[in-house]
Amino acid sequence: MFQRSISYTALLVGLFDASAAVADLTADRVWAQTIDMIEEAGGSITALATRDGDNLNISNVRFTFDIPDADETVIVSMEGWSLLEKGSKVYVEQPDYQEIVVKVDGQDDVTARLGYSVRGDMGVYSEVEDTLIQTWDIARAEVKLIELIAPDYDPAEATVEFVLSMNDAISNMMYMGNGHQQSVQSLGEMAFDMTIVAPAEDVDLTASARMRGLMSEAFQTVNFNGTPDQILAELKAGGGLRATSSLDGMEFKMDGKAEGEVFDISFVADKSASNMNIDNGNASVSADINDIAFNAFVPAEIPLPLSGGIEKIAYDIDIPLAAAPEVQQVHFGMEYLGLGISDTIWAMFDPTGQLDRAPIDLIVDLSAGVRLDRDLIDPNIEELMEQDPTQFGSIESLGLNELLVSALGAVAKGSGDFTFDMNDLQTFDGMPRPEGEASIVVSGLNSVFDQLIEAGLLQPDQLMPIRMGLGMGFVATGEDELTSEVEVRSNGGVYVNGQRMR
Q1: pLDDT surpassing 50 at residue 416
Q2: Which of 375, 366, 368 is nearest to 398 (CA)?
Q3: Torsion of CA 12, 13, 17, 19, to 10 degrees
Q4: CA distances in angstroms from 124 to 8, 22, 29, 82, 326, listed in the order given
Q5: What's the rounded Cα separation, in Å, for the pair 171 and 216?
Q6: 300 Cβ contact list (under 8 Å, min separation 6)
Q7: Is the Cβ–Cβ distance between 172 and 12 less than 8 Å?
Q8: End-to-end CA distance of the chain
Q9: Of 90, 101, 178, 276, whose CB is crowded by the most CB atoms within 10 A?
Q10: CA distances (Å), 126 to each of 35, 67, 81, 287, 428, in order?
Q11: Are 266 and 305 in contact (CB under 8 A)?
Q12: In the prediction, which pLDDT does 239 show?
């Protein structure tokens, strides 16, 4: 994975002609860039910058970030670092160990004193033409709690310990003069461990989390530091953002006791990936996570362990952002595949094993044709939505490309396609008149009823009204197969299985 990162660095640099001018970057410019980045992120930074030959020593550093929603301010203080000018580059040098103080000013003031240790090449800055290139290669970094000061917390009566660490972190960033950015980052592992012990309150808690094999890439061709109108103009002109990330695995575990009640909770997942793309007036987002296993044992709430797994969770969304006279497409897809629970849970309501315990599947795939009269990236969108949501446009069509539900041995499949007449708001009492067809086919439902009766979860006399209800919308089309077909015609007539219902 890390050889891959190194090759990406070469690719980034290779974007520029070999004869491009290489400027002698100064530590003062790097320091000014750091200040700008903190301020652009909504914070502020103060420090003492002292020149010593080729070194610019940054000391007495203080970061401040306001959290408006919580009416709190976070203040981070640390010793600092040095910026060393060497050739045409600037090198970041930090002590192997320093203390960091984090203070939260608000309703309940909290202060944490942390120990920060780091090994590796902290950072190298260089410049090609108007592009600043930043490279980090950290072998290991660790943050450890030394002291905690908080209301109602007495270290003589309780102890809190936590360690946050990361290994093999590589980052390659390019900051271009026009505000565009490109990055490639990788992380071998990030780990978090915490313990809380308070004997007087009968609390003994341990929590840990791990994340392995993170890889991310991003290419931004919009200056998001501009005004909303400038950002909107760049997006309309073809600017955008492409970002991808992948993860080899993650896990979380928490166990112990609180007020005498024991508990054990865990979550593990294998590979996952995500993609985001904003380009040519459209935005798309997709993600998937695989082989999830979960366990929760909380006897005070649930008498038996709740455990199971999911083979895959995935979604993808594609929407237009810019107004256009023609109809544009929206897409939404979602998959939950292989959802299963342990036999212990099944036995709670099916002790004799009558029900089909095969994992549950759910697939939904929708599309819509929309006409946008206003940009969804309009900087005043919240105010405009409050005034009149309909001014943004209309839904011209809706398609159910796929619906699949599989559970207890039964399978339901559906599809459909409708258009909407925005000029006819009378036929359906203020709603645009739909026209189209949809169908759903359910197989194995009678077998499920038999299983429920055998398991004692359904009585035979309760089955008759259920079958009568199904008979109103479904017809038998095969062995243990029911079908429902719905049609809405241009005259407003609604037909179910050929019979007019409206």
Answers
A1: yes
A2: 368
A3: 170
A4: 16, 15, 13, 12, 49
A5: 9
A6: 261, 263
A7: yes
A8: 62
A9: 90
A10: 17, 34, 18, 34, 65
A11: no
A12: 84
Q: Measure the CA–CA gap between 206 and 21, rounded to whole angstroms.
A: 55
What residues form DSSP beta bridges with 111? Answer: 103, 149
Beta bridge partners of 134: 125, 173
Q: What are 176-204's pLDDT values in tens digits?
A: 888 888 999 999 999 999 999 998 888 99
Nearest to 33 by CA among 181, 160, 212, 170: 181
What tokens were used for 289?
């996570």
Q: Cα-atom radius of gyration of the chain, to the nearest Å?
A: 30
What helix, strand, coil percent values describe the chain, rounded to 5? 15, 60, 25
Q: How many CB atoms lie within 10 A of CB 329?
A: 14
Residue 13 has a pLDDT of 36
Reported pTM: 0.84
E strands along 322-466, which residues? 328-341, 360-372, 393-407, 410-421, 433-443
pLDDT band with cut points at 50, 70 and 90 for residue 357: very high
In angstroms, the Cα distances linking 41 to 27, 38, 66, 233, 401 are 21, 5, 11, 22, 41
Neighbours of 78 (CB within 10 A): 20
- Spatial neighbors of 472 by CB under 8 A, at least 6 apart, are none
Using CA atoms in the order 442, 443, 445, 451, what is the torsion angle rounded to 10 degrees? -150
pLDDT-derived band at 99 (thresholds 50, 70, 90) equals: very high
d(CA 329, CA 315): 17
Quick one: tokens of 45?
């930074």
